[in-house]
Amino acid sequence: MANYAWPSRDEAQVIGKKTSRLDGVAKSTGTAKYTYDVNLKGQLIAKALGCPHAHCRITKIDTSPALRVPGVVHVEVLRDAGSEIEWQGEILAVVAAETEGAAAEGVKAIRVEYEPLDVFVKDYDLEAAERAGRTSSGGGRVQTEREPGPNDDEDKFADAEIERLLKASKYVVEGFYGIDPITHCCLEPHGSTVEFKDGKLLAYLSTQNVSGTDDGFARDLNLTASDVEVRCDYIGGGFGSKFAPDYWGVAAARISQKTGRPVKFMLDRDLELKLAGNRPSAYLKVRVGADENGVIQVWDSHHWGTGGATGGAVSQNVVPYVLVPKNYRRRVTNIKTNAAPARAWRAPNHPQACAISQTVIDDLARVMGKDSYDVFLANLVNATNGKADVYREQMRIAAELMGWKEKYHLHGKGPRNGSIVEGLGMALHTWGGAANNSSCTLRIRPDGSVESWCGTQDLGTGTRTVCAMVLAETFGLSPADVRVNIGSSKYPVSGASGGSTTVGGVSESHRRAAQDALEKLFALVAPKLEAQAEQLEAVGGRIRVKGAPQRSISWKEACALLGDMPLEVTQSYRSGTPSPLSSSQVAGVQMAHVAVDLETGVVRMKKFVAVQDQGLVINPKTCASQIYGGVCMGIAGALFEQRIMDPETGAFVNCELSDYRLPRLGDVGEIIVHLYEPDSERQRGVVGNGEPPVISPIAAISNAICNATGVRVPVAPYTPQRVLEALQRRA
Amino acid sequence: MKLFEYAAPRTEAEVLQVLSPEFGKTEILAGGTDLIGLMKKMIVTPDRVVNIMNVPTLQGIEPTDEGGVRIGAATTLDVVRTSPYMKPYSAVLQVIAGINSLQLQAQGTIGGELCRRPQCWFFRNGEGLFWSSRHGTGERDDRYHAIFDNEGPARFVSPSRIAPALIALGARLRVIGPRAEDEQWVPASAFFQKPKHEQQKETILRPDQLLTHIELPPVDGWLSATYEVRQSVGPDAPLAAAACAFRHSGGIVREARIVLGQVAPTPWYSHEAVAALVGMPVTVETAEIAGQAAVQRARPLNNNAYKVQLAKVAVKRAILLAAGMNPGGF
């Protein structure tokens, strides 16, 4: 076993160099085949009947008219008469037909009778939820510096202690903050094209989890996982919502099994938004008390929200977010609404927790009449993740890039240009990002070609390119010299891409396999160069003696020494194993500069700065891209995105992209990304950065709007309607 | 999408021959930027789709003998936007520029833009144009709905972004059919109607009639502008809009037309705003007063009171923009 390590910054030839995606041309020219592009000979097209009601019981379902529609081949009923349906869009039946039109007409022909049941979707209204019997406790926690005495009632002690601390505080802020649910809104909807043939299933699935979805199909079809191959070469967005085949994927497989035909079943846009992923809401009432320096000494909050029909609000564990005072009381109430269950959304819990608690710090600055930067700085003493020093340095860099000192004014005190005011805001965040399980098989052939196989997937983040860069770095080659195979469940198992765990995992497995292989190759080359194996290095397409570069042979010559047999190595990394190649826990600071039109409530992004630590950066180009994307997505959540449920019917009214508002490029303003990678962070090895950059934007933008206007717009997204309503409340 | 018959006539007369006298049986396809989506969702399910893009007389822009301009209904928005004849009609050009999507501008037609179906999300999700509060709670989410003329069952907003500008500029529309010899010129303001029942639509067009041309009168000293309150720089519908055209002499407005968009089931002609502006010089103050006058009779629904403010600002800014003054905003 080799001594696994990364090359130093000076030694690295490939790692740390901006490298374009290996599949960039294929993607931009359309030759890359996404799941939606896969069409199999003789395939049926499937369409779904989604339930039109948010809560009902099916009293009758008759599919026979659908079967009479010309072109319809099969109708698969998923929910029978008697079933209770708890959210709009739930799939009742799937129609498979020769053409898309016939499938659509078949769906329209199905006759269903419903008994309507009570609907509740007002997750923001705690009292209404309580009246409707839709609430349950999500737990809570009290922490005080002073301990209750042996005879004290703990609740009463906490009450008294919180009140005492608030009373003793120099500054007290009381507020309400919130963030509405949004959907994952994957541009490529969930779905698959499947073919059941000779007792085996081939599934082209749009998934973040190729290695882990085969058994999901197998279980339902009475197969073994080895009878199933899941493939996903390219995916148009997942964000945490595509970890399973889903019941509609299984339905497609079942239809293929029954009809003997391949089946293509991609969700229509409205069902994609209604069913296939949403992020829980969070609304918070809070009181905080701070000392004369603005350091929060006591936090007392109650938050609530919904993860849909299964309840689940934002966890109380992350409230308040990152900066946790010594004394706090927090509790959460889960609300059950008639909406599809939430799914993991990029950095689960964190964006909401950040949005509802780091806005409080900014309001404290407003109340104190102080620079928000200074109040955040003062509160770093409360950082619970041991990253206070990193945040301090990141804040300094971010402020410089933003021009914070030159631009900053106190809340609502900036110059007014006609109806336009401007403001700055900041927020900070943390994330784990530890490496996932990953295995890699590597083959070096006698002709010098290098090929790898790994059951991971590229979510569009550049995983393919990272794999190639790690191999190329190790062998002294260029990324174009190696062939990387990913995206099949038949390849060595690799973890799902969620939680920013992929880059760490694949870097581990590929570096380990490559170092092992290189060690074996060195053993063959050493006698030839009259050196010891450990004296050798692979640089610039040659294997040479360290310190004597003239004693070298080319990579090809070296590989020819393998004889007839290729060199094959498989190496794995198991998540949680301490390793010099990867670690976890990152810090990031973001700052927003916005302009607000006081007459229309329209907010425009002017500039955004993201300073992000992610340990060692393999590819600065795709790493920065990931942050640009995260920031854009955060801006979307701050200003545009909202799942709008009609309060009366529970219908998801903006379930089409024409109504589900998203920013365009012209809406995101200037974005500055700074990869924070001093030696202290680089030496930690690789840490994922998929989630972190999407956490802070909402709080940072909310704070910037408040700084511009002097008024807190309490609930995201900060739409013109909400900005105007907040301004009016002040007036 | 339902299976359908496809017709691609080459003359206006041929178009009329293949249109059905019954609503819903045939649909006219121009750019298709609205129709295709509606067909995919099966909100409209025609038996026959009639593509009018191959009819040469419906294409292009030409000056009229009177000094105005005539636009074929199937002319795409980018052709309208770049035509030298359109230069004096600022109110129209500003709208097309504000649509902010190369695809929609290149594919969408001016006639199609006038005939778009409402963006009302209840309609688009299959509840029809006349959705109601089924349980009488009055709690439907109507944040983008009408603040004028919303007492009846129709509470959607007229989706056309160009219509207010055309009405303010005094445009006429040529409508033909059902018979080949039937031809009428309709003031743009009379083309739109608020449907009172399911058998009526949002324009006066019968299913076997065709909008063929839009004619703008000579500019003749009229200044014009449209101001749309847009949340994003993308092609999403504005939250409120106003078009203003006026003629002045000696610094005093002598004649004006002010039409609001996105606020009523039809483009909303504001007599109040006109009355406030005529006889006054254009200043920030008089524009503000006209904006105030425009929303006097506004009656917001459950969740759209903010649109009253936006409509007021849109009117003010349209007036200032038409006068060549800084309208404010971004």
Give a concise summary.
Chain A is of the alpha+beta class and 731 residues long.
CATH architecture of the largest domain in chain A: 2-Layer Sandwich
Oligomeric state of shown chains: heterodimer
Provide the helix percentage of chain A: 25-40%
Instruction: Record the strand order, biggest sheet of chain A.
Output: 3-5-1-13-10-11-12
Radius of gyration of chain A: 28 Å
The number of helical segments of chain A is 19
Q: What does the main sheet of chain B amount to?
A: 5 strands, antiparallel
Radius of gyration of chain B: 19 Å
What descriptors fit this protein?
heterodimer, A: 731 residues, alpha+beta, Aldehyde Oxidoreductase, domain 3, Aldehyde Oxidoreductase, domain 4, 3 domains, 7-stranded mixed β-sheet, 6-stranded mixed β-sheet, 19 helices, 29 strands, 26% strand, globular, B: 330 residues, 5-stranded antiparallel β-sheet, 4-stranded antiparallel β-sheet, 12 helices
Characterise this structure.
The complex is a heterodimer of chains A (about 725) and B (about 325). With about 725 residues, chain A is of the alpha+beta class. Chain A has three domains: about 35-120 and about 190-265, Aldehyde Oxidoreductase, domain 3, CATH 3.90.1170.50; about 280-435 and about 585-730, Aldehyde oxidase/xanthine dehydrogenase, molybdopterin binding domain (Aldehyde Oxidoreductase, domain 4); about 435-575, Aldehyde Oxidoreductase, domain 4, CATH 3.30.365. Helices cover about 30% and strands about 25% of the residues of chain A. Chain A has 19 helices and 29 strands. In chain A, helix 13 runs parallel beside helix 14. Chain A is globular, with a radius of gyration of 28 Å. Chain A starts with about 25 loop residues before the first helix and ends with a helix. Chain B contains twelve helices and twelve strands. Chain B is globular, with a radius of gyration of 19 Å. Chain B has a five-stranded antiparallel beta sheet. A four-stranded antiparallel beta sheet of chain B has the order 9-10-11-12. Chain B has a three-stranded parallel beta sheet with strand order 1-3-2, with no helix packed on it. In chain B, strand 2, helix 2 and strand 3 form a beta-alpha-beta unit. Chain B is about 25% helix and about 20% strand. By secondary structure, chain B is of the alpha+beta class. Classes of the chains: A alpha+beta (about 725), B alpha+beta (about 325). Chains A and B meet through helix 3 and helix 19 of A and helix 7 and helix 12 of B.
